[in-house]
Amino acid sequence: MKFNVSSTVLLTALQNAVKVIPSKTSIPILDYFLFEIMGDKLRITASDSEIIFRTVVDIVNEDGVDYKMALPSKRTIDSLKELSEQPLTFDVDNDTWEITVNWSSGNLRLSAMAAEGYPEIKSYENFSQVTMSADMLETGFKNTIFAAEQVSQLRPAMLGVLVEIEGSNVTFVATNAQHLAKFEINVEEQVEDKVSLIVPPKTVYILCAICAKETSNAIIQFDEKNILFKIGETILMSRLIEGNFPRYRQVIPQANPRHAIVNRQALLSAVKRVSVCSSPVNGLVMLDFNADKVFMTCADAGFGLYAEDTITIQYNDEPMKIGFKAQYLLEVLSVIESEEVDIQLADATRPGVFIPMEQPAGENFLVVLMPITLN
Q1: CA distances from 118 to 27, 33, 339 (A)
Q2: What pLDDT was estimated at residue 45?
Q3: With 70 as the cut, is the pLDDT of residue 153 above it?
Q4: In a shared domain, residues 221 and 295
Q5: How many CA atoms lie within 13 A of 34 on its CB side?
Q6: pTM (two decimals)
Q7: In terms of residue numbers, what domain contains 77?
Q8: Cβ–Cβ < 8 Å for 97, 187
């Protein structure tokens, strides 16, 4: 059987799909893409057994025959990514599983295999559902995933992003106990019961890549153990992380009395400049708020390194010093998009709250950053 497909269209689909393919697996079929030819549609699936990605592209089916096969993921994508936009012809030998991919100046021969044993997407007819724009879904995850725990055997729930849905309110939260990011939005659809879902980090990153190229709505469906995202012609289904997420609301200060209004880019640049001299032990940057200025210092006594910088801010309270881990402060300032940031403080031992001064209607974004206290 033969079918024709655009090289660019196919490559775009495969580049999203390959993000799911595991780097190592004891299940050979998971090293392959599943290709299902159904009329003039090609359905592409990739899986690591925990996550299943599926998308559909248009083809010209010369024989009008439906077919199913598994193609080696690495060889397929490595060859196609070097091609310019042009039509590709897939010529499949039904008896030998040999596939020849023809283009204008050459061809590629691949050995496929039978598709039996490839993971199936669980039926989601009875799943609960909420809908939002793909752009809003991407924003919720991008504004929080940076704060998640990176490596943890003891706290697996903190590796992912908590998604809480209550009524028409959707809240995204991630934390590693040193900083916490929370993003809230309102959607049109309402969920009857409050739902808490912990989405794995790999799923979050794949989803953000998909959403970045979509303008349609995202349909989110879920049960107790699985979550499914439908965006345009693409489906991403994932197992949820089991466990209890920290009671994050208890660590968000409600009434920090001191407010510093800071130009985000100016502070970001200044912290980058001085943090090259921060100690590798704690990465500390000291911020001294005083009379419409903030004075920043970093030092590494072991190597005799020291750096300081000052920027102008809006601050009319009593002088105050507080220390933060420079890496976390840079992450916070990098993810916020507002021109100015309201830094809300209490004292040197209590968390600071970073809130964008400009936020779109219906959004509520904040980051809590724990201070470093030196004895």
Answers
A1: 10, 9, 48
A2: 97
A3: no
A4: no
A5: 25
A6: 0.92
A7: 2-111
A8: no
